[in-house]
Amino acid sequence: MNITNLLEQGVELMLLGMGMVFFILGMLVFAIKGISAVIQRYEPVVEHSSKSSVSTDISEDIVTAITVAVQRFRSK
């Protein structure tokens, strides 16, 4: 075996390996896009309500205490 043969085989093997990786990654991209399209088609649409689910029953004393604390913090 001479060096030219070895270099040619090395380049062929490199190109074959890189081609296979490129092909497999391309197939993976198409598979993910296809599965995503199928899932988006059959998944029910979730509607967000405009009302917040957080309770707004905060007493006036707590609101006053928070307001005073924020004002003191900002004045420093």
From TrEMBL:
Membrane topology note: Single-pass membrane protein
Keyword Manganese applies: no
Residues annotated as transmembrane: 13-32
GO terms of molecular function: decarboxylation-driven active transmembrane transporter activity; oxaloacetate decarboxylase activity; sodium ion transmembrane transporter activity
EC primary class: translocase
Cofactor names: Na(+)
GO cellular component labels: plasma membrane
Keywords: Cell membrane, Ion transport, Lyase, Membrane, Sodium, Sodium transport, Translocase, Transmembrane, Transmembrane helix, Transport
Pfam families tied to this protein: OAD_gamma (PF04277)
Cellular localisation: Cell membrane
Catalytic function, reaction form: oxaloacetate + 2 Na(+)(in) + H(+) = pyruvate + 2 Na(+)(out) + CO2
Family: Belongs to the OadG family.
Function field: Catalyzes the decarboxylation of oxaloacetate coupled to Na(+) translocation.
Quaternary assembly: Heterotrimer of an alpha, a beta and a gamma subunit.
Name of protein: Probable oxaloacetate decarboxylase gamma chain
Taxonomic lineage of the native organism: Bacteria, Pseudomonadati, Pseudomonadota, Gammaproteobacteria, Thiotrichales
